[in-house]
Design goal:
The protein has one domain: N-terminal domain of TfIIb (Single Sheet), CATH 2.20.25.10. β1 and β2 form a beta hairpin. The chain has one helix and five strands. It is globular. Strands 1, 2, 3, 4 and 5 form a five-stranded antiparallel beta sheet that branches. It is mainly beta. The chain binds zinc ion. The site of zinc ion (ZN) has 7 residues, from loops.
Length: 63
């Protein structure tokens, strides 16, 4: 399920309060400043630092 652009605009990284962007796989939101990926589950981004995964070089979500 794609995440809406509107929702994307209001979401911020819970750690640094910076903007996040959709990754190439569209299964996570990337904070470049923290090098973290917030997973999108069933169209709902999980904006929790303890649920976030480290960002790899490609920006894809690590499974
Ligand atoms: Zn951040």
């Amino acid at each position: 399920m794609p995440i809406s652009q509107k929702l994307l605009e209001i979401l911020v990284c819970p750690r640094c309060r910076g903007p996040v962007e959709l990754n190439s796989g569209e299964d996570g939101l990337v904070c470049g400043a923290c090098s973290l990926v917030y997973e999108i589950r069933d169209g709902i981004p999980i904006m929790l630092t303890d649920q976030a995964r480290p960002l790899d070089k490609s920006g894809r979500l690590q499974v």
